[in-house]
């Protein structure tokens, strides 16, 4: 995935998810060093289910970045 131009945005959003919502919504997940769109979508799902409104907004951004990467 690192050859796609949107990869830095996806990686940045993925890292942000763990930084801001790790203990609240991603407590059962561990970050990977080079997230794929599938990794990011799994995190987005957890943000939607376990997170607050801000986490859900970040999940939307992650999903949009993943769909742009396809």
Structure description:
The structure is a single chain. The protein has about 70 residues and is mainly alpha-helical. About 70% of the residues lie in helices and about 0% in strands. The protein has three helices and no strands. It is globular. The model has no long low-confidence stretch (mean pLDDT about 90).
End-to-end C-alpha gap: 10 Å
Give the SSE string: HHH
Radius of gyration over all CA atoms, rounded:
11 Å
Number of helices: 3
Indicate the proportion of strand residues. under 5%
Shape label: globular
State the major sheet: none
Number of strands: 0
Calculate the mean pLDDT score and round it. Answer: 89
Helix share, percent? over 70%
- Secondary structure class reads mainly alpha
Give the low-pLDDT segments.
none
In short:
With 70 residues, the chain is an all-alpha fold.
